[in-house]
Amino acid sequence: MMTAQLITPSFTSNVHKFTVQQYELMLEAGVFAESDRLELINGEIRVMSPIGRKHAACVAKTSRAFQIKLGNQAFIWTQNPIRLGDHSEPQPDLAILKWRDDFYAEALPTSDDILLIIEVADSTLAYDRDVKNTLYAANGIPEMWLFDVNKKVVEGYSQPSVSGYKRMQRYEQNETLAMLVFPDIVFSWEDIF
Q1: What is the model's pTM?
Q2: Residue 19 CA to its chain's centroid (Å)
Q3: What's the number of CA atoms in the CB half-sphere (13 Å) around residue 55?
């Protein structure tokens, strides 16, 4: 099982916590290769796992389903960064955002803009559940769906708190899902898997 790796200085046992501003300056300065898949989580720069075939197909299919069903009611932000406070800039697989005419060109989406986060996991299930889920809840993101592409199961999280989401519901084949903010727009199992 591949997990996200942490980039830390090897010359010291102390871990330096980066701010979003420092991280973005490093990206702009070319400190990392453009092909590097990185994200900033709680001040730590993490190497993201490569995207597998099942993962890519699920993200593409889900993104298309959301675009068709939501139209201009929301903006589908696919595998792009979001800003959560001064020390986190994760790249969720999908973020369903409030509509903005500038397509978020002026500033990255923040927790106030996010209606739903979706993480798709084939080899990173524990990391997405234990690290990213907690980060999203602590930042007040109202809802998160975690797709396990191997078992074809969705865990739906809601009621965020500083210590994590208070409510979790498991969805399996033949069940439907609906966002809290758009309860009348229903997604079938075939829409995502």
Answers
A1: 0.89
A2: 19
A3: 18
